[in-house]
Structures
1.
Amino acid sequence: MKAKYINPFTDFGFKKIVDFQTIPTIFKDEVFTQAFEKAELAKLGPTELDSYENSLKIYRDLKGVIDTAYEDGKLEVARNLKALAVDIEIISKSTGLIKEQIS
């Protein structure tokens, strides 16, 4: 049996699902939330879709930078605590790093 996939850009019923102002309570599952998000995107014109994709790229880039900086910060704190002769177990609990990352 061949699986059927919805194309959010061509399926008429799928495009009309976004007529809701908010997602009804019975559709709060992750699957439905993603479907509503795809339906919202299907309504966008080419210019709006480009703007959306650009803003999403900027968001992901910034999130990557912040996540990396956060991890680097934890490693720096661990190095500083280790230099002060703080016990590895305490450093591990304080930073959330495993002992191998601290050593």
2.
Amino acid sequence: MSPSTSTGRPTTPRRRSDGTSTTAGAASSGRATAGKARTKPNNQSRNKSAARRDDRRGFRPEGGSTAASNFAPKKPSVIAIEVGPDNGFVKLGVPANLAGIIAAGGVTEPFSIQSVTLPDSLAGRDVLGQGRTGSGKTLAFALPLIARLATTKVARQANRPRALILVPTRELASQVAAVIDPLATACGLRV
């Protein structure tokens, strides 16, 4: 004879996914279950330490590192070389320390867009330039920006941006940051 519940209905043993068996039948309230085993409520079945997820920026679980830090670009070491007054960037008015950083990267003569825009942008005038990929546009706007920020004696507010560069994609933003970072580091600025 098979076991029965208080209502007289027969119960059938059911096997859970964890290997334990339960009996499905009438619930304690007198209603019959639809063949499903009763389980713990969601909040009790979870591991308490794994239930909390921390999405704060820079959060590192104990003993580990964030996945983003594994792919973060390494900080480049800033090495400037001595440049003379015959350097193409120095002739355009770029400060010698910035020209030395650029020369250390292998660029000693400005591209055409840089030759046209740098004198005006270093003088503080607005400039609009258009060029193909790889034509030197990033340095054309980055050099005057870094030179201006490095020489301005305005009192800085802590943790406030002093410049904002808008680009359409995250990939382009990381490329622009990679170009600007060595220049800013040489001048004592953060990117």
3.
Amino acid sequence: MDVYDLADRWPDAINLAKEQLETPKPSKYWYKVLARAYAYTNQQDKADEAWETFKILRYQPE
């Protein structure tokens, strides 16, 4: 599944990622999507925070 195809715009990608992260067992890759979407919408502080979270979770099993 290509997450970026599901969102017509980056704000939609942000909303989609936030929704997915609220599920009981979200994929850690949603943090990567969130970081990229925040970066494209000039929200660098939030992008950095999401990327740091992804880096922490990156090597942990799903």
4.
Amino acid sequence: MNNSNMYNLSISPNNVLTLKGDEFYKFVQSVAGGGPLYDILKIQSINSTQLLLDTDDIFEIFKYDSPDLIEIKSKSYFKISGEYVVKAGIKNSSTYLTTRLKTKQQTLLNNY
């Protein structure tokens, strides 16, 4: 199945690939909600579509101990047998958001 058929790209703004700052965060909220995913991006200063697309793993930051991450980590992860596991909804929201953006990027490249 073609991934571009799975995502309704018409609901993305035409300038979605150039969004920065507040416009980018508003888009994230509209797609993924204002919960932990938004907080994960914000604390890392991932404040544009391009920065998000260039980030391999937005959850990598949680490998480090930092008091600044405790609250977000508790909202985003389960602790199972001493290991932290990203909550499925957050991981799926992240995948949906990035796949939608990559699909839009590919569509624009194909039409260019």
